[in-house]
Write a structure and sequence with these properties.
Layout: H1 2-59, H2 61-73, H3 85-113, H4 119-148, H5 150-166, H6 168-174, H7 211-216, H8 218-240, H9 249-277, H10 283-295, H11 303-330, H12 337-366, H13 368-374, H14 376-381, H15 383-394, H16 400-404, H17 414-418, H18 427-431
Helix pairs in contact: 1-2, 1-3, 1-4, 1-5, 1-8, 1-12, 2-3, 2-5, 3-12, 4-5, 4-9, 4-11, 8-11, 8-12, 9-11, 10-11, 11-12, 12-13
Length: 442
């Protein structure tokens, strides 16, 4: 039921995400107005995410989820009364706040319900299911607006957002096992907080002091910054690919569909792969693929280049999405999951909203092909950040490595290493494991 509510909320958001900027531009707002519509929407989301940790602690997961759904759906109907830029901006800010609040609450609730040793795979599956609305709703919103008018898109988006309100009783029963009254506890599953995340709550873990503490933690901030570089490009693609010169509406819709589909599949795959081999190993290939996909937009007038670029970018984006979220969740106990969900969503929406707002100002000077390709630069610049932690983790291997010389394929977690005796540091110590075979120290 939680996932069903989340799907309805995301459907509402995605239906208008690309359709609203196009409608604003056609109404005379230009590329600057189109970027402003998306930027203000995501500004509201960021504001909600900054406040979400304290709101969830005070009112609980379920109340935050349903309040967010109401704030996302109700203001949408104001777009039926007027298509002015001022109304679109005002409604967009409130809708963004509702989306941000409900997104953080739903993500934290799902993460709290997952077993820690399979959290990466579970988050990947949840992300894949949550991406389904984007696969359908993002291109569908453009298509419906072009063929049947913007008003129909508005009505469907409002209904999808308000649907979880009708399922309040079911949602309450579905989340009854999570801490707090009526399944709406603010800190998550208190029954599992001592054991469920005991391994992850290592010396490296941050204290569950809220979003501000997460922003001060260098490890969490590093993953958030890596993720931001990909969300900037994702927001620009969603807002401006339908507006790009020299590309048909059908090609733009197909490109957005391809990007959403590949991101969904790769996010699920990244969760499974990361649980077995280490999530940090996936950051570098994810960034490289995402940047190459955007660089391919230099050939924007070729439909095959658009489709290939969006597929490659979608794969990289999905990988980075799941890897960064799983790595951030690993660093906190159960009581800190809400704050981590807020920080990750903040990184998502800061880039997703700030990117289009900035892009709308300079694309008139660069043109769409060069402007879209330039969004790959931040991802390339983030590669040293992705490699920094990977080098540290690769240096931590099984103690038997020094004795046998064999390469261990599995990444070891910090909690695993702390449970082991110290690894041998000299040749004699390393060979001591082989004394039964008659090997001595020289």
């Amino acid at each position: 039921m939680v996932i069903a509510a989340s799907v309805g909320i995301l459907t509402s958001f995605d239906l208008l995400l690309a359709a609203s900027p196009k409608y604003a531009a056609s109404a005379g707002a230009g590329s600057g107005g189109a970027g402003l519509v998306t930027g203000v929407l995501l500004l509201g989301t960021v504001v909600a995410e900054l406040a979400s940790a304290s709101l969830i602690r005070r009112h609980g997961y379920l109340r935050a989820l349903l309040a967010g759904a109401a704030l996302l759906g109700a203001p949408t109907l104001a777009l039926l009364a007027s298509g002015s830029l001022a109304i679109m901006v005002a409604a967009g800010f409130v809708r963004g706040f509702g989306f941000g609040l409900s997104g953080v609450a739903a993500g934290a609730l799902v993460a709290d319900l997952l077993p820690p040793d399979r959290r990466g795979e579970g988050l990947g599956l949840y992300g894949a299911l949550d991406s389904a609305p984007g696969i359908v709703a993002l291109p569908l919103g453009i298509w419906l607006a072009d063929h049947y008018g913007f008003a129909l898109v508005v009505v469907i988006a409002a209904a999808a957002a308000l649907a979880p309100m009708a399922a309040f009783g079911w949602l309450r029963r579905a989340t009854a096992s999570v801490g707090g009254p009526g399944g709406s506890g603010g800190t998550g599953g208190t029954d599992r907080s001592a054991e469920g995340l005991g391994a992850a709550a290592s010396a490296e873990a941050v204290e569950p002091a809220g979003l501000v503490a997460g922003l001060r933690d260098r490890g969490q901030l590093r993953f958030a910054l890596i993720f931001v570089t990909t969300t900037v490009a994702a927001g620009i693609v969603a807002s401006f690919l339908p507006l790009a010169w020299g590309i048909s509406a059908n090609t733009a819709a197909a490109g957005l569909l391809a990007q959403a589909l590949t991101a969904t599949v790769s996010r699920w795959w990244a969760g499974r792969r990361g649980d077995r081999r280490g999530h940090e190993r996936l950051l570098v290939p994810g960034l490289v693929m995402a940047s190459l996909g955007m660089i391919a937009m230099l050939a924007l007038t070729l439909p095959v280049a658009v489709m290939a670029g969006m597929c490659v970018f979608g794969i990289g984006f999905g990988i980075v999405q799941n890897a960064t979220l799983a790595l951030m969740m690993e660093r906190v106990p159960a009581s800190g999951i809400g704050a981590v969900s807020a920080l990750w969503n903040l990184a998502y929406d800061t880039g997703y909203g700030g990117g289009p707002a900035a892009f709308g100002l300079f694309v008139a000077h660069t043109g769409y092909p060069a402007g879209l390709a330039l969004t790959g630069i931040p991802m390339i610049a983030a590669l040293p950040l992705a490699r920094r932690g990977l080098r540290r983790r690769l240096a931590v291997r099984e103690p038997a490595d020094l004795a046998t010389g064999q390469v261990v394929g599995r990444m070891s977690s910090r909690a695993d290493v702390e449970k082991r005796p110290p690894a041998p540091t000299t040749r004699c110590e390393a060979k001591s494991a082989s004394l039964s075979k008659g090997v001595g120290c020289s």
